[in-house]
Design a protein that fits this description.
The complex is a heterodimer of chains A (149) and B (484). Chain A is of the alpha/beta class and 149 residues long. Chain A contains four helices and five strands. In chain A, 39% of the residues are buried. In chain B, a hairpin with a 2-residue loop joins strand 4 and strand 5.
Chain lengths: 149, 484
């Protein structure tokens, strides 16, 4: 449970699924980061939902980490995402941009948002990530640690 | 020219369904169907698993109401270890109820605020870009904010007991594995960290007032839209009052005549059969004695309020009395009243949660009871969407040999088809141009039942929206598409 006095904190939300091969990249990224850093908060999600807007409104910065289907140079990317209303009809699966937008719209406090995408290859039902995904994960983690420092 | 209109899938519902409406050459509706086109088959693949896995496995049927499946399965599994509902420890019973009320509270909040409210706020003919919760967030921030916080409250009740908001584990054969901690109780009562249970009760009352205001302005619409006679089924306690966790099954017809007189849940097979149709994976349950044509029942909030003598919490009971006063205490057969009934249940659950949070027994460590093992177990509860049945048989090693699930939405299958027919006949037939608003009315009618199509067929799927119009030769003549 999160209290209401966390506005200075940073939140990492891993999006994925351990049971879907490389879709676990977002979760493994925060597993590894959580082992090295205890000053951050971490959450695991299969997908972002509307309630996450209320959660992130209590933070100054939020990082969304997800596996990427698309080819990415160096196997990963980090970019700032900006609050954007959704054009989708479904409320079951929101983009980081929409969650940021809702946090601002309803709770008057959108944090700074960043998306870390890590290239995955395999998406079938299976535990464990592919070799290429593991390489991308290590590179992303090393780069990220330098970047935040 | 004859036409076939397809809405595929229906949006702002849980899961994946499709509607087809067949028009003749004069634009008159010939027939309509609500198809459920997904299939997963939990009933089959759970066979061969040990019985104690059932409450954990079956909750994967759904991400919205996993607690309902967990608890219905748990009640059945209790019987397999020889523990009937009255033999559970008081603490285990109360913790299960607390979790169950939290589940109904959050599920109803999700349905009303996220899925249904755009139709009420903006109208059924509103432009498609307005028919979603994001438009609600722009135009009625307070409503959207409260909806989110109410859903969160229910989810956190579940998390406190089951460890997770979705797919947590709380029930074990014969009881519960975790009690409530004093600090957890304080979290929900104090209001220091989150809006507390008293605030939830107040907000539930506020949203009922909102609905009453809507009713006042739109009474004709609520009275007539998708209104048709049907049976109503639900659970009641020994006094005939609304009961959501364990009681007896009661059904009445559209005029209020009792068709199922408070029978024990374990005897459900004596009274129900399930029909099938070639155009849907979802079955059609009905009362044996009345037959397939007229023996089907609506379930869920409207049915529960129709069949009960009273609601056993004072504020919700007062609202029930106001609700039934509009029909002169006659059975309410109007589909859109489901929303109002759902809000009264939100209030009931908030009151029930409050009572349980103030009960010290939820912190007792007397959690598990044992009995003499049996080979068959039946668990029936009132899930958010209605009466939910889990029935298991095991061999002498405790491996599941048979599983029968009658999911709430399945009971509503015929009612949803009737609702679609009503809209097709009254809003689309011989109207010339088929507008997006007309097609949305089909979805509004289905949506009022808060169907969980994934549960009903135990299915998995994406939800793009595709509307197709076919002529009598089945050639596509018009098409609209919304991507996921």
């Amino acid at each position: 449970m999160n209290d209401l006095n966390q506005t200075e904190k940073t939140l990492f939300i891993g999006i994925g699924n351990y049971g879907r091969s490389d879709d676990a990249l977002g979760w493994i990224f925060i597993d590894l980061l959580a082992n090295r850093c205890d000053q951050y908060d971490f959450e695991y999600r299969y997908q972002l939902q509307i309630e996450d807007a209320e959660l992130i409104s209590k933070y100054r910065r939020v990082f969304f980490i997800d596996a990427s289907h698309e080819p990415i140079e160096n196997g990963f990317s980090i970019y700032e995402c900006l609050p954007t209303p959704s054009g989708s009809f479904t409320s079951h699966q929101l983009s980081p941009e929409t969650v940021l937008w809702l946090a601002g719209e309803l709770f008057n406090a959108p944090p700074k948002g960043y998306v870390i995408g890590i290239r995955g290859i395999n998406w079938e039902l299976n535990h464990g990530i592919s070799n290429e995904a593991e390489k991308n994960l290590k590179n992303a983690l090393a780069y990220f640690q330098k970047w935040v420092n | 020219m004859k036409k076939k209109i397809t809405i595929d899938p229906v949006t702002r519902v849980e899961g994946h369904g499709r509607v087809t409406i067949h028009l003749d050459e004069y634009g008159k509706v010939e027939d309509s169907f609500f198809h459920i086109v997904e299939f997963r088959g939990f009933e089959r693949f759970i066979q061969g698993h040990p019985y104690w896995e059932a409450p954990v496995l079956v909750q994967r049927l759904c991400g919205i109401c996993p607690v309902s499946h967990h608890l219905a399965a748990a009640k059945a599994i209790d019987q397999l270890v020889g523990v009937d509902p009255q033999d559970l420890s008081p603490a285990a019973s109360k913790l299960r109820r607390l979790m169950h009320y939290g589940q109904i509270f959050q599920s109803h909040a999700l349905h009303f605020f996220y899925l249904a409210s755009p139709d009420l706020l903006f109208g059924m003919d509103a432009p498609v870009e307005k028919r979603n919760v994001f438009a609600v967030a722009i135009e009625n921030k307070e409503l959207a904010r409260k909806g989110i916080l109410m859903r969160k409250f229910g989810q956190e009740i579940i998390q406190a007991i089951a460890g997770k908001k979705i797919h947590g584990v709380a029930a074990v054969p014969g009881g519960m594995h975790k009690t409530f901690e004093p600090k957890e109780r304080e979290y929900f009562l104090s209001g220091k960290d989150i809006p507390n249970i008293q605030t939830m009760i107040e907000w539930s009352q506020e949203i009922i007032e909102f609905m009453k205001g809507y009713h006042e302005k739109n009474r004709e619409l609520l009275d007539t839209f998708a209104a048709f006679p049907s049976g109503h089924l639900g659970m009641v306690d020994d006094a005939g009052n609304m009961e959501l966790y364990h009681g007896k099954l009661r059904a009445m017809d559209s005029n209020g005549l009792i068709t199922l007189p408070d029978v024990p849940t374990d005897e459900y097979q004596k009274y129900f059969l399930e029909g099938v149709e070639r155009w849907s994976y979802m079955k059609f349950p009905y009362l044996k004695e009345i037959g397939r044509e007229k023996g089907w029942n609506r379930v869920g909030p409207l049915a529960r309020i129709n069949i009960c003598n009273a609601i056993p919490t004072p504020l919700a009971e007062k609202e029930r009395q106001a609700f039934v006063a509009f029909t002169g205490k006659r059975v309410n057969n109007s589909t859109l009243y489901s929303h109002w009934a759902r809000l009264i249940e939100i209030l009931h659950c908030a009151e029930a949660i409050n009572e349980l949070l103030l009960d010290d027994e939820i912190m007792s460590s007397d959690l598990v009871r044992e009995g003499k093992p049996r080979l068959e177990g039946i668990g029936i509860i009132e899930a958010p969407r209605g009466t939910l049945t889990h029935h298991y048989q095991v061999d002498d090693k405790g491996m599941i040999t048979r599983c029968n699930l009658i999911v709430s939405t399945t009971h509503n299958n015929e009612a949803m088809n009737q609702a679609v027919k009503w809209v097709a006949n009254n809003m689309i037939s011989q109207k010339g141009t088929i507008t997006d608003g007309m097609l949305n009315q089909v979805e509004v009618a289905i949506r009022a039942y808060d169907p969980c199509l994934s549960c009903a067929t135990q299915a998995l799927g994406k939800m793009p929206l595709k509307v197709e119009v076919y002529n009598h030769d089945d050639k596509l003549v018009d098409e609209r598409f919304k991507s996921n």
